[in-house]
């Protein structure tokens, strides 16, 4: 059983300078509706994570190998972040290149989870896998994160 570790945020930065912040709740929550469960009667489920490393692994997985790694989702998330209309049928692909993923803890502390320029591509387990220690996945000095906003593309 997991526990409520507070609200985390994930700073998602792209190579083109755009990006957004994504909220990650760690406590109990209600499920969304399904074909057999009315959304107004969602079930209360327990917290999914037991420690910070599990949250960090889930964040990284979603953007590197999971559903959020596809351009179709990234383009919708960006449109929402910039308060623009979501694209109707965004194409799938892998052209929107990530620069960095940074977790922001409830106390405001930050942890770089993944960075394109410092990812190692050899070793067992794979340097970018959730099983690899953070220091193997990200190395060297981490420059300050850019401020988002301003120009729209």
Folded structure, characterized:
The chain has 153 residues and is α+β, with helices and mostly antiparallel strands. The protein has one domain (7-32, 43-137). The chain is 18% helix and 21% strand. It has three helices and six strands, in the order E-E-E-E-H-H-E-E-H. The radius of gyration is 17 Å and the shape is globular.
Short description:
This protein is α+β, with helices and mostly antiparallel strands.
Q: How many distinct helices?
A: 3
**How far apart are the termini?**
43 Å
N-to-C SSE string, H for helix and E for strand:
EEEEHHEEH
Mean pLDDT: 80
**Domain module count:** 1
Strand content: 15-25%
Low-confidence stretches: 121-153
Q: Which secondary-structure class do the elements indicate? A: alpha+beta
Biggest sheet character: 4 strands, antiparallel
Q: In what order do the strands lie side by side in the largest sheet?
A: 2-1-5-6
Count of distinct strands: 6
Rg result: 17 Å
Shape: globular
Helix proportion range = 10-25%
Helix and strand layout, with pairings?
Layout: E1 7-14, E2 19-25, E3 29-30, E4 44-45, H1 52-64, H2 71-81, E5 98-104, E6 110-115, H3 134-137
Antiparallel strand pairs: 1-2, 1-5, 3-4, 5-6
């Amino acid at each position: 059983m997991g526990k409520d570790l507070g609200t985390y945020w994930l700073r998602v930065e792209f190579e083109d300078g755009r990006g957004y912040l994504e909220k990650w709740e760690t406590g109990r929550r209600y499920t969304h509706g399904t074909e057999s469960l009315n959304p107004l009667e969602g079930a209360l489920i327990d917290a999914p994570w037991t420690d910070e490393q599990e949250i960090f692994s889930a964040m990284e997985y979603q953007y590197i190998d999971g559903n959020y790694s596809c351009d179709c989702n990234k383009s919708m998330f960006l449109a929402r972040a910039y308060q623009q209309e979501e694209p109707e049928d965004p194409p799938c692909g892998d052209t929107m290149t990530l620069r960095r993923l940074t977790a922001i803890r409830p106390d405001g502390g930050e942890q770089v989870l993944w960075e394109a320029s410092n990812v190692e591509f050899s070793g067992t387990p794979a340097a970018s896998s959730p099983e690899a220690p953070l220091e193997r996945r990200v190395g060297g000095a981490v420059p300050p994160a850019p401020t988002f906003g301003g120009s729209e593309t």
